[in-house]
Amino acid sequence: MDTKNIWNIFLDKIKSRVSPLTFETWFKDSSLFELKENSIVILVPMHIHKKHLNENYKDLINEIFTDITNTYFEISFITNDEITGETAKVEEKEIGVPSFSPEKANLISKYTFENFVVGDSNKFAHTAAVSIAENPGKMYNPLFIYSSSGLGKTHLMHAIGNHILKNSNKKILYVTSDTFISDFLNINKKDQNGSNFDSVDFFKEKYRNIDVLLIDDIQFLSRATQTQQEFFHTFNNLYDSNKQIVISSDRSPDDLKLLEDRLRTRFSWGLSVNIYPPDYKMRIEILKKKIKSQKIENIVNEDVIEYIANNCESDVRQLEGALTRVIAYATIYNCSNIDINIAIEALKDYLSKASVSKNSVQKIQQVVSDYFKVTTDDLKSKKRLANITHPRQIAMYLCRKLTDESFPRIGMYFGGRDHSTVVHSCNKIEKEIKLNNSFKEMIETIIKKI
Length: 450
Ligand code: ADP
Ligand code: MG
Fold this sequence. Notes:
Blueprint: H1 3-15, H2 20-27, E1 31-35, E2 39-44, H3 47-56, H4 58-69, E3 74-79, H5 80-84, H6 123-134, E4 143-146, H7 153-167, E5 172-176, H8 177-192, H9 197-208, E6 212-216, H10 225-240, E7 244-249, H11 261-267, E8 271-274, H12 280-293, H13 302-311, H14 316-332, H15 340-346, H16 353-372, H17 376-380, H18 386-402, H19 407-413, H20 419-435, H21 437-449
Parallel strand pairs: 2-3, 4-7, 4-8, 5-6, 6-7
Antiparallel strand pairs: 1-2
Bound molecules: adenosine-5'-diphosphate and magnesium ion (MG).
């Protein structure tokens, strides 16, 4: 048996022994790097895999390998970076974990790992989150997740909470830093009236008698100096008793300039992970997942999905919002099939002008290439064959005539051409329209199709 075969058998077997989430996160992207007489080296994607597998799955891996080969192996893990010599170690802390009984946690149950789409832009954050969820308090403390808005921080935090809630009896609390601030201010308000004992107790009970604190949007704490001190004590209290803390923010710990230094330092004790905007492939996947969950995959055309994915590039919230709008529009107008025209109409105010414009360029390129039986890639290519250059010039002319795009931007949409090329094309086509009536009619036909 070669190593690839053994690994495939191993994957099959381990798949039936762990949850799908565990399999996807920790095993799917690994491979057998080296198999010797009595040692095995497994190649894993990131350092975090190495640590997690070592601490949690070594016995199971061993058991399965022994089962397949009848040999006992010494198992170790290696990352690609280590093979190439670029070791990128993450800072980490390890601690033990106590257990409590389940309690109200403020968790939104629909935000789970199962419906969180993973791609290159959030892979690291997702893996770190799963690792925390499987082993709260033991792996990385605190876990600090940061990104600009709408990229899944809140979703991931709830997913961590929901996973822990389902698999243990730990006490979890999800709050935004705003809630923390107002709970704290409440104590002080009552303090002035002289009867604050209840609220102090409430505060301490709420924030200290827990195993997992998920605190969202910590950047709002910057405004509240007094509360920062209280948060500092809460953090220390939890941290010192090995409780898991997960923090999210719209910027990195270093960029939380208004936060006390001692807090910022503590935030970087554990692991900081960044989420980036999703790429096109991932945007498509998120849309499809959402469409499927609403059981409407049969009535949404593929080009609608592409249209939304093309026009909502910055974040997932906007992407979801666009889809919701299109579906609402189709429902109101009783459309049995959602096609591109419905999407364009439904989103005309929602999308910024620039992105609508970008899409019209794509539409023009599509219609022109269909008409002349060439591909849109041909239009953007450097090819100089007459059967391609002429449609390309026509498409550029139509972009200039029908959209608000400038010559340089049109050039950009056509494979990065210089603006003088676009000017030349437009002049040439205009002249042709004046001189040739049948050509003029053809252009009018194409415009109708757009
Ligand atoms: P943030 O807290 O970073 O502003 P959210 O967690 O509120 O972002 O995400 C905004 C919306 O996008 C939510 O509805 C969330 O479910 C969805 N979302 C974000 N990332 C993903 C993802 N990777 N897969 C599926 N849905 C996502
Ligand atoms: Mg959020």
